[in-house]
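Anyone up for a design puzzle?
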């Protein structure tokens, strides 16, 4: 039976320049491969070693990129290795099959959101009214499914984020702070549900996952085994579970370690 590997991308497998955490002497820094260009500028990287590991993983398992990114944002990433047949975008709102969204899956998700949580318009209006233009740089809506803000972190009041989380909780939404972005996401919009659907379609009996943020917690809990890096929301909260390994590595080297763990578990599970 195939092994399914569902991994978050940003700050788990791929890293912006600000998130690389190259704390070693310059001469010992790993060689990097650019895997995303946006508006003619290099945007995301992984180590060359991680690129080779991901290529091996793509041959050994059903590798499923799993991201809160929109479809457009995901499709500009150029990962090494075989092109994944499945990808999970918009935090589970879109299940991509050979680069195209599965319309039946999307319809099921949107119907569930309409039944179980406050509408997007209500949340967006609250963000527009309550967020201070002093520290907000952009208001964004992603795929008509969730909203996020791009902020100046050094000016962002911690209490505002906590108050927003309480407000959202009462309306069936969750809040996640990742780098310079604050996400407001409906609780039924999950990566885990989409991962289970891919497992059903592929017949996978072993599922592996990795992620760094609050929005990855459900994915990690739904997998048979999971890993989180030493940075991010989950590490800051010291979050763990019996089947989750908390890795010490931070930054781009954490991505390399996660891929090693995926390959080791895949080869053990397949045998």
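Challenge accepted. My sequence:
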């Amino acid at each position: 039976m195939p092994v399914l590997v569902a991994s978050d991308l940003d700050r788990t497998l791929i890293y912006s320049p600000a998130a690389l955490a190259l704390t070693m002497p310059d001469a010992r820094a790993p060689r990097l491969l650019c895997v995303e260009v946006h508006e003619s500028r290099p945007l995301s990287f992984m180590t060359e070693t991680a690129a080779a590991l991901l290529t091996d993983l793509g041959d050994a398992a059903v590798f499923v990129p799993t991201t809160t990114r929109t479809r457009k944002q995901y499709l500009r990433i150029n990962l090494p290795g075989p092109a994944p047949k499945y990808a999970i975008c918009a935090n589970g709102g879109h299940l991509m099959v050979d680069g195209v969204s599965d319309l039946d899956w999307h319809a099921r998700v949107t119907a569930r959101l309409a039944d179980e949580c406050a509408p997007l318009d209500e949340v967006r209006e609250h963000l527009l009214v309550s967020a201070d233009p002093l520290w907000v740089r952009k208001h964004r809506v992603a795929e008509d499914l969730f909203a996020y803000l791009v902020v100046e972190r050094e000016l962002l009041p911690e209490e505002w984020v906590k108050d927003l989380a309480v407000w959202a909780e009462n309306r069936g939404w969750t809040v996640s702070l990742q780098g310079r972005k604050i996400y407001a996401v409906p609780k039924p919009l999950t990566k885990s549900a989409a991962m289970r659907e891919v497992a059903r379609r592929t017949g996978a009996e072993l599922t592996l996952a990795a992620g760094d943020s609050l929005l990855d917690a459900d994915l990690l809990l739904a997998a048979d085994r999971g890993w989180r890096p030493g940075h991010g929301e989950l590490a800051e909260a010291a979050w763990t579970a019996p089947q989750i390994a908390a890795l010490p590595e931070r930054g781009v080297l954490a991505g390399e370690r996660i891929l090693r763990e995926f390959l080791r578990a895949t080869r053990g599970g397949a045998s």
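A detail worth pointing out: The longest helix spans residues 252-270.
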